[in-house]
């Protein structure tokens, strides 16, 4: 399968997933979107296995790393700031306190995952260089 | 960074796609390297040089201003 076809199928699966989710949720069914998501992920995995086109290389990996770093930074800062604001508001509006604590937890969690994975890959690279 | 990839490709009658397949990267990556917009890893540079029967020294001309791994914008 050519890369263009792979990309087309990927977009079609994404669009179908989106449509199924919107329709199911609007009808009050939450199980179908979950099943559709699992089927979609499985379909994408099979597609990537079936595709003989080269889907990634060192340039794509490098770009993905840069994009992931920006995404991580933005997400960690945004959730931390929002969490702080919600916790501060929570003194007067208790409903916000839980949301603030969850956001602060998500922010700390993402920083922890970053630190652990950085250490892991650093160690792995170090082992590979010996 | 300037490269002689295009010139050597023409000499061996190779398309970007052919060279990309030979060294195991996507065609776009060869295009970016040719345009000087991406600095390849040492291994990829070595593989490209091998595929074009030349050396890394002959293939790439480094300039002092090159700092980023992604090449000049």
List the helices and strands and how they pair.
The complex is a heterodimer of chains A (130) and B (73).
Chain A: H1 3-26, H2 31-50, H3 58-89, H4 94-129
Helix pairs in contact in A: 1-2, 3-4
Chain B: E1 2-3, H1 5-11, H2 16-23, H3 27-35, H4 42-51, H5 56-59, E2 60-61
Antiparallel strand pairs in B: 1-2
Helix pairs in contact in B: 2-3
Descriptors for this entry?
heterodimer; A: 130 residues; mainly alpha; 86% helix; 0% strand; B: 73 residues; two-stranded antiparallel ribbon; 5 helices; 52% helix; 5% strand
Describe this structure in words.
The complex is a heterodimer of chains A (130) and B (73). Chain A is an all-alpha fold and 130 residues long. Chain A folds into two domains: 3-50; 58-129. Helices cover 86% and strands 0% of the residues of chain A. Chain A is flat, with a radius of gyration of 20 Å. By secondary structure, chain B is mainly alpha-helical. Helix content of chain B is 52%, strand content 5%. Chain B has five helices and two strands; from the N terminus they run βαααααβ. Chain B has helices at residues 5-11, 16-23, 27-35, 42-51, 56-59, and strands at residues 2-3, 60-61. Chain B has a two-stranded antiparallel ribbon with strand order 1-2. In chain B, helix 2 (16-23) packs across helix 3 (27-35). The mean pLDDT of chain B is 87. At the A-B interface, helix 3 of A face helix 3 of B.
């Amino acid at each position: 399968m050519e890369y263009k076809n792979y990309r087309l199928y990927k977009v079609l699966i994404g669009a179908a997933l989106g449509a199924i989710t919107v329709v199911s949720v609007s009808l009050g069914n939450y199980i179908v979107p979950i099943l559709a998501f699992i089927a979609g992920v499985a379909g994408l995995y099979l597609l990537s296995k079936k595709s003989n086109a080269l889907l990634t290389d060192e340039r794509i990996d490098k770009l993905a790393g840069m994009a992931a770093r920006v995404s991580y930074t933005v997400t960690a800062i945004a959730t931390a700031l929002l969490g702080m604001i919600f916790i501060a508001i929570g003194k007067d509006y208790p409903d916000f306190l839980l949301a603030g604590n969850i956001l602060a937890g998500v922010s700390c969690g993402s920083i922890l995952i970053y630190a652990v994975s950085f250490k892991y890959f650093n160690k792995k690279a170090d082992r590979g260089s010996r | 960074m300037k490269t002689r990839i295009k010139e050597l490709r023409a000499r061996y009658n190779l398309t970007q796609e052919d060279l990309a397949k030979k060294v195991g990267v996507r065609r776009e990556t060869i295009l970016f390297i040719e345009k000087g917009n991406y600095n390849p890893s040492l291994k990829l540079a070595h593989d490209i040089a091998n595929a074009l029967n030349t050396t890394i020294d002959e293939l790439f001309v480094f300039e002092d201003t090159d700092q980023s791994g992604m090449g000049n914008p």
